[in-house]
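May I ask for a single protein's sequence together with how it folds?
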Amino acid sequence: MGGIYKRKGNSAKNKQHHRMLKTKSYKRANDQIHDDIKPQNIQRWQNQPIDETLPGLGQYYCVSCARYFVNEESIKKHQISKQHKKQEKRVKEKPYTHMEAEQAGK
């Protein structure tokens, strides 16, 4: 009739599972995006070559959010969203340097 049931999943102890989740949802940090917003770098991100592995062939990219979009309609909709406007404010702030961080820690 009933058999012995084995617990499935048990991912609490699985280190590889946690590493996979970290890299899967990795987004560029605000200080990296701050460098991308500079005028000499922004052209590089907006005029990318066609890449079949990226959404929308890599042609629709939001620099301040570091996200690719499928088509022009979806990126325009994103640009008027609250999430995009908040991210733009965060990225425009000057990031802290290592010296400032060390002084704050003392």
User: Anything to note?
Assistant: The chain has six helices and two strands.
